[in-house]
Amino acid sequence: MDERSAIGQWKQRARRLKVETYALYLAYRDPRVPWVAKLFAAGVVGYAFSPIDLIPDFIPVLGYLDDLVIVPLGIALAFKMIPGPVLDECRERARETLSQDQPTNWVAAGVIVAMWLLAIALVVVVLVQVFR
Fold first, then answer.
1. Total structural domains within the chain
2. Is 61 left (phi over 0), alpha (psi -120 to 50) or beta?
């Protein structure tokens, strides 16, 4: 296998994953999607866009495991919960938006960072209580 073609394939997969993640973001905001699917999709999108990973990227091999396995698996599971017509519509909107410019949602980024800070604070409180 030619190294250039392998890199091209990885870039193509990364672009497709970006479109799928943004389509999932659009779907979880759609009123036709069941609340359970919205909740799961919001968690997957939040994790995908979060600057904090379950497994830090600096750990060799395992660091990218979540990006290569967990996120695509979460997206696939979320898509199973979303009605087909809604998903098709969101994918098309995602392709159109991403072909024009990069969407930026600072409110969503703030919520994600706040969730991580809250989780860290809870862990600290629990650890303080345990080691007292």
1. 1
2. left
